[in-house]
Amino acid sequence: ILHDGVLEGRKTFGNTMKYILMGTSSNFGNMFSVAGASLFLSFLPMLPTQILLNNLLYDISESTIPTDNVDSSYINSPKKWDIQFIRKFIVIFGPISSVFDFITFFILLSIFHAQAPLFHTAWFIESICTQTLVIFVIRTRVVPFYASRPSPLLLASTVSVVAVACILPFTVIGSIFGFVRPPASFFAVMVGLVAGYLVLVELVKNWFYRKYSAIIDRKP
Fold it and tell me: Is the pTM of this model over 0.85?
């Protein structure tokens, strides 16, 4: 019983760290994107009610993290709370999402000639897709899905939230929040952006854990 309790405690700590790393890096990146967008946009990059809806959907997708599987390599040894590690993670991974946000902004303004409603809608969708799907990369040190599979509930909640975000602008509820129907070509562009973002995060993740393994794996 004691052994099982120790393992369960390590799993709980591991899933808690997933939430903290995902949430803090995402929030840092979003605030950086908003601050940068304010320098060249004549309107808000997203309306306050849309931001609240974005945060609600994001939190729903994360609510199933406690059910997630934790890699056996992680629970083989005890871990400690390390603010230095968290700070490094935020500073490195937060700006990556901002880079893809700025690419999205450029495409919306230069190719789609987006006015405020389309801009709000497109960034809302792109933001939800990137910040929720990235959990599958962040949740493990190894290759996602191939070497480490998420729990069915985490997979279901994340995919459901992405689907809701993409469908919402085509509904009456979406119009209440000020969304408009984006062109089909935007979704093709978004798929490429999201895929590129996840691949880059995976590559940076591998580099990050190699570089800071001494800090991450040191005994408490």
Answer: yes
